[in-house]
Amino acid sequence: MLEKPSVIRHYRWHVGTIAWLLHRITGLLLIFYLVLHIWVIHHISQGPAGFNKVMGVVQTPIFLLLEIGLLGCVLYHAFNGLRIIVIEFSKEGVEAHKQIYAAMMAVAIILFLIGGVPMFIHFLHALAG
Amino acid sequence: MAEYLFRIFRYDPEKDEGTKGRVQEYKVDVQEGWTLLDVLVHIKWFMDGTLTFRRACSHGICGSCGMTINGKNGLACETQIKDLGTQVITVEPLRGFRVIKDLVVDMEPFYDKLYAVKPYLITYTPPPSDRERLQSPEDRKLLDGKYECLLCGCCTSSCPTYWADKDFLGPCALLKAAKFSLDSRDEGWAERVNVIDDKHGIWRCHTIFNCVEACPKDLNPTKAIVELRRMALRGRL
Ligand code: FES
Fold this sequence. Notes:
The complex is a heterodimer.
Chain A: H1 15-42, H2 47-58, H3 61-89, H4 97-128
Helix pairs in contact in A: 1-3, 3-4
Chain B: E1 2-10, E2 22-30, H1 36-47, E3 66-69, E4 72-75, H2 81-84, E5 88-92, E6 99-101, E7 104-105, H3 108-116, H4 137-141, H5 160-164, H6 170-181, H7 189-196, H8 210-214, H9 221-236
Parallel strand pairs in B: 1-5
Antiparallel strand pairs in B: 1-2, 3-4, 3-5, 6-7
The complex binds FE2/S2 (inorganic) cluster.
């Protein structure tokens, strides 16, 4: 018997698959951020000078840009997480998971624009020096 | 009607040993109203007698002809060629299972999971002496969308969680578990919950919904899993 047959065509992507995959990816990125965050904050034990030095690094333009990405990850993970909670605990949620996804993502995108646009302007200012 | 190109997965355990299988292409002049099963039968009878696949009823009842069609699971006998909307059609065996030959997979692990959830009515109180066990129409309605399953394997084999964890009971077995657990006459919850309330059981599902998309009978195994989770949670509280 053939254990692992070759695949001719990859399995079709459905809304649920994409929602789950992005949830996984943003979750892993958030763990990475958390480690980075703790590493930065731990410099506080080195007094004001040490802390300011590392803070200087994370306020460079590249980090300001990454922060917009962080906002995106947080919003996606939070609102898709909310979708999963609604699916699990509401009566009709399982049937309407695609509509719930659309609604949650609409809110997430609005919040992303509200937060992301000023952050991007801030980044442009930092770039200009 | 029109000529279509079929790209079909082939694996002959005698000739293709040591390989991961191959693709064979067939050009078929598809007639009006043909299903994919009609095409496969046509190939087997008139073009290449070695092509191997399962089928019995040809009418979406026996659940033998589950396969991956253009990257999505479904029954060959319920798939109209012209509804697929492509001139090139790929046909693969159900994934997540071992391939015996061509489109025939080993369903044994799938059945093992089914037996594990005790898919039968369990009762301890004896039935009334003068009639069968009665059920109200409302209680019967709870089983709609749970009992129609053909055991074709399309759902379990579409589940990324099952691909990654071969011990996962899978959507089909859990749908069956829900069917009996939600039955007002059943008294087997205490036995069944031991099997499904497990990290390879109801809690393994990531609500990816591939099973719902794949089910040829439009059933909702994810809903069944969510319902079982609520029952298990209520039992713990
Ligand atoms: S042949 Fe019976 S379901 Fe397709």
